[in-house]
């Protein structure tokens, strides 16, 4: 018990860990926000009728989904933005936004394909407007299909951000790594780090199921 | 004023012209049943009335309001029309009660309690009170369709359109849905029904429309259409005529292949083995009669058309054969040498032969 106190709390260690956790949460939350917005745009390009945009979206999605996010991160950090003076955190947010966007675009597209046009038509013939039919009939069903997939996208995103240590960001993983070296107690420290990630995932799960009837 | 009036309605899909200048009107209390082969435009016609398809030309008036006018409020007009689909299209995320109440509560501002009361009354009528809290996925097709009918009734429509309401159902469930529609018919609700159920059509309709050639090909009372159809395609449709066509181009044609095709044709329409054998026999004999007596050389031009009328169980043969003038049954006296002619004479009826422009035309029935 004393050991745990020594590793995680003593001499402001808790503050360092909290800062790392904050970096992880910040990158994840911003990337999720931008990624979802860009992903929705990508999805509309992908299913839209303008051929060049459709091809762009298709190529973009397959490149991003087909390569490790760490490669993209290094490409942007050491290549594209090397001399631009942008903060590492911003580069990480850009990277993970791009990454999340591709996944969100595909998830939205598959949910859209799940809409039953017959039900929308039935709603229209009852007298609902286009928007009402979407809101009352299509949307609840899209959400139902997309929700579990989106939840796992979020959890994956949080875990993938653990690679940002490569580009000098002190996120949760980096802090845990540093603490393990400093205290020479890798077992306990890393298990502690894993528990923090687990708590994050659990929080995400709770947010997604907030208000669910049981 | 007509409930529905349609003037010069045309609809194309690409190069395919499905409806060409259809004129029609429906009066209050009429029950119109539309029949016709697949792809004759009957479903498209129905969908145009609901403006689910935008017509290329023509005007449609619902209760005097033109829905094809650019400034019309189609959502408002649709509230007074109901549509029942082949695939039911219940809202999958709502239970039966919510499916029924969604539209009246949202659109007609009916208080929820009143809507539920009305819904229960309808569920009693269709015998599904026990399913009020069930979700569509757990209901059978017939139950879903009955709920779908209730859903349109919740809006008190002036007219209900049924787009093949029983085509997606198991044969065992067709009856329960038709019973509900019959019940509505007794209440003199205005309806347009597209269906393949001919007995139901005859019983429930005040007027039958037969669709073909991009429009209303023939119309009349059920008795007129079913017992006394006037035009060629209507007759073919009502008697459920099936065609078999075979061409022979050389003397050593593949007899086995032809016989096999006839057997498949016969099997498809449920002809007995004995009857099938007779059809094959007639074909074989008439072909060899003509090959031996009318044709010279190895180049043959012979066409056989067989029409089987399912409703009256009769087969009609038409044979066209180029060559010399030859009537296989011309020789009245019994001739044992010519066994083919004997067989044809004994099993067929209404045999006729004519010869013009170097072609023998033969027809007979079996």
What percent strand of chain A? under 5%
Oligomeric state of this protein = heterodimer
Which whole number gives the mean pLDDT of chain A? Answer: 86
Would you identify the CATH H-level superfamily of the largest domain in chain B?
P-loop containing nucleotide triphosphate hydrolases
List SSEs of chain B in N-to-C order: EEEHEEHEHHHEHEHEEHHEHHEEHEE
Structural class of chain A comes to mainly alpha
Rg result of chain A: 21 Å
Q: What order do the strands of the largest sheet of chain B run in, or round the barrel if closed?
A: 6-7-8-3-9-10
Give the total of beta strands of chain A.
0
What is the CATH domain class of chain A?
Mainly Alpha
Largest sheet data of chain B: 6 strands, mixed
> What form of chain A results from the Cα inertia axes?
flat
Helix content of chain A: over 70%
CATH homolog superfamily of chain A:
MetI-like
Number of helices of chain A: 9
Beta content of chain B comes to 25-35%
What is the residue-mean pLDDT of chain B, rounded to a whole number? Answer: 87
């Amino acid at each position: 018990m004393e050991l745990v106190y020594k590793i995680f709390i003593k001499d402001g260690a808790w503050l360092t860990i909290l800062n790392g956790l904050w970096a992880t949460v910040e990158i994840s939350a911003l990337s999720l926000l931008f990624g979802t917005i860009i992903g929705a745009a990508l999805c509309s390009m992908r299913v839209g009728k303008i051929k060049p945009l459709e091809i762009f979206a298709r190529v973009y999605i397959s490149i991003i989904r087909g390569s490790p996010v760490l490669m993209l991160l290094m490409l942007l950090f050491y290549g594209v933005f090397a001399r631009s003076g942008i903060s590492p955190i911003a580069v990480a947010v850009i990277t993970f936004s791009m990454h999340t966007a591709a996944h969100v675009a595909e998830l939205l597209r598959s949910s859209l394909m799940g809409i039953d046009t017959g039900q929308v038509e039935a709603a229209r013939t009852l007298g609902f407007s286009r928007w009402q039919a979407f809101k009352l009939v299509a949307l609840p069903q899209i959400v139902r299909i997309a929700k579990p997939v989106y939840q796992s996208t979020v959890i994956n995103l949080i875990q993938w951000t653990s690679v940002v240590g490569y580009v000098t960001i002190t996120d949760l993983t980096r802090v845990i790594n540093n603490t393990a070296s400093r205290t020479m107690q890798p077992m306990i420290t890393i298990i502690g780090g894993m528990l923090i990630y687990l708590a994050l995932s659990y929080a995400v799960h709770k947010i997604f199921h907030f208000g669910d009837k049981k | 004023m007509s409930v529905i009036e349609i003037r010069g309605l045309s609809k194309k899909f690409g190069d395919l012209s499905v409806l060409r200048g259809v004129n029609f009107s429906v009066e209050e209390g009429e029950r119109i049943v539309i029949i016709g082969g697949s792809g004759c435009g009957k479903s498209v016609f129905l969908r145009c009335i609901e403006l689910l398809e935008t017509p290329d030309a023509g005007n449609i008036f619902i209760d005097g309001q033109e829905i094809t006018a650019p400034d019309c409020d189609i959502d408002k007009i649709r509230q007074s029309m109901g549509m029942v689909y082949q695939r039911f299209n219940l809202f999958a995320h709502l239970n039966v009660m919510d499916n029924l109440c969604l539209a009246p509560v949202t659109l007609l501002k009916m208080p929820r309690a009143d809507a539920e009361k009305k819904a229960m009354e309808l569920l009693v009528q269709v015998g599904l009170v026990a399913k009020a809290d069930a979700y569509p996925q757990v209901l059978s097709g017939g139950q879903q369709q009955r709920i779908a009918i209730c859903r349109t009734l919740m809006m008190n429509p002036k007219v209900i359109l049924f787009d093949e309401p029983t085509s997606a159902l198991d044969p065992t469930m067709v009856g329960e849905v038709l019973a509900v529609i019959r019940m509505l018919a007794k209440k003199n609700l205005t309806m347009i029904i597209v269906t393949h159920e001919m007995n139901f059509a005859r019983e429930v309709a005040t007027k039958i429309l037969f669709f073909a050639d991009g429009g209303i090909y023939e119309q009349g009372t059920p008795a007129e259409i079913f017992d006394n159809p006037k035009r060629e395609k209507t007759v073919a449709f009502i008697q459920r005529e099936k065609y078999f066509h075979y061409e022979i181009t050389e003397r050593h044609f593949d007899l086995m292949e032809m016989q096999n095709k006839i057997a498949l044709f016969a099997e498809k329409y449920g002809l007995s083995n004995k009857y099938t054998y007779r059809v094959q026999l007639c074909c074989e004999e008439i072909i060899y009669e003509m090959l031996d007596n009318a044709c010279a050389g190895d180049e043959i031009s012979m066409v056989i058309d067989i029409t089987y009328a399912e409703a009256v169980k009769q087969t009609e043969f038409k044979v066209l054969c180029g060559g010399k003038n030859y009537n296989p049954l011309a020789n009245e006296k019994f001739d044992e040498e010519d066994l083919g002619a004997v067989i044809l004479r004994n099993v067929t009826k209404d045999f006729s032969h004519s010869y013009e422009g170097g072609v023998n035309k033969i027809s007979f029935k079996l």
